[in-house]
Amino acid sequence: MKAYVLKKYGEKEELQQLEMPEPALKENEVLVRIHAAGVNQLDLKLKNGAFKMIMPYRLPLILGHDVAGVVTKTAAGSTLFKVGDEVFGRVADFKIGTFAEYIAVNEHDLALKPGNISFEEAASVPLVALTAWQAFEKAKLQKGQKVFIQAGSGGVGTLAIQLAKHLGATVATTTSAANFDLVKKLGADILIDYKTSDFEDTLSDYDLVLNSQDTPTLLKSLRTLKKGGKVVSISGPPDLAFAKDAGLNWLMQTVISLLGRKVLKQATKLEVDYSFLFMKASGRQLAEIGKLIQAGVIQPVVDKVFPFSQVNEAMSYVNSGRVRGKVVVKIR
User: Fold this and answer.
1) Please, are residues 32 and 103 in contact by the beta-carbon 8 Å criterion?
2) Residue 88 is part of which domain span?
3) Is the model's pLDDT at 206 over the cut of 80?
């Protein structure tokens, strides 16, 4: 099969198209013929080597976390899907490789693709939708609460706004004025142009912040919360709970604790709660998200679809910071 492979970490490194063996199935896995794959910031960070200390992948590595395709084979113990089923999912860490023609996936990481969207739209959903779902679940977001979602026109932002509105929250977001129509259509109530305004001057007494930006923005965001409010960060710094859950050794746990010390100190001073989220694959949660898509509650937002021959161009476009919603690679 054809696949795009990372041979060496580095910001300037490109993926190489190589002929790779078709994946062999293990127990509880299904073989998926990939029709489309989503491109995420996580793929870029892995390529650049940002996570090589805490996620020690062995190179060469096929990148890609989001998949939409058709089941072509099932292994022993697999009972959730049959050959011919259209599925989508975010494959588990250390099992990635959706920039390819086929992938073996644990059936518990997949869900049936909603029938009212294309493979390209389905491939845009899993990682970002699961991130928003797990962030709101972690924070126990309730109807009537106020949530500040940063970068509302981005991949996570576009799905998080829709999910937060479905849960009955009031949503504030930052984006450029050019994207106001988009985020308003998705359900955002308060729109802040990050180029001309400071969100800290507008927002106060919020229940939750979904942070996806840098540490200075995170520290400012803490001050928009009411006492007892929560911030869930998907961009770091990681916290000790994450380090323990990831099974990191004591040295890495110590390093991670030091990295987050400034943020935790400020959160404690303001009497708010800080936590880091590194989302996990979940076919069960994705099936619930699929129901919302099927019902028209959530709509995928796809900026651009690249052909399989332009995986590196797709990665570069994601890295440009100009993406509205998600970028997808069409495999077949």
Assistant:
1) yes
2) 2-125+300-330
3) yes
Q: Is the Cβ–Cβ distance between 321 and 45 less than 8 Å? A: no
pLDDT at 245: 75
CA distance 154 to 156: 6
**DSSP, residue by residue, 61-120:** EE---EEEEEEEEE-TT--S--TT-EEEEEPPTTS---SBSEEEEEGGGEEEPPTTS-HH
Residues 184 and 269 in one domain: yes
Whether 71 and 212 share a structural domain: no
Cβ(201)–Cβ(226) below 8 Å: no
**Which amino acid is residue 312, in one-letter code?**
N
* pTM (2 d.p.): 0.96
Residue 283 domain-assigned? no
83 and 147 housed in the same domain: no
Residues 95 and 196 occupy one common structural domain? no
Task: Provide the pLDDT for residue 161.
Answer: 98
CATH number, position 74: 3.90.180.10
The answer on 142 and 267 residing in a single domain is yes
> Which percentage of the chain shows pLDDT scores above 70?
99
Q: How confident is the model at residue 304 (pLDDT cuts 50, 70, 90)?
A: very high
Distance in angstroms (rounded) separating the CA atoms of residues 230 and 295: 30
The string of pLDDT tens digits covering residues 46-63 is 999 988 877 889 999 999
Look at residue 293 and tell me if it is in a domain: no
Whether residue 292 lies inside any domain: the answer is no
**pLDDT, tens only, 214-263:** 999 999 999 999 999 999 999 988 877 776 777 777 777 787 777 778 99
pLDDT confidence of residue 257: 73
C-alpha–C-alpha distance, residues 79 and 93, integer Å: 22
Interatomic CA distance for residues 203 and 223, integer angstroms: 9
User: Do the beta carbons of residue 331 and residue 36 sit within 8 Å?
Assistant: yes
Q: Is residue 251 part of a domain?
A: yes
Report the domain count for the chain.
2
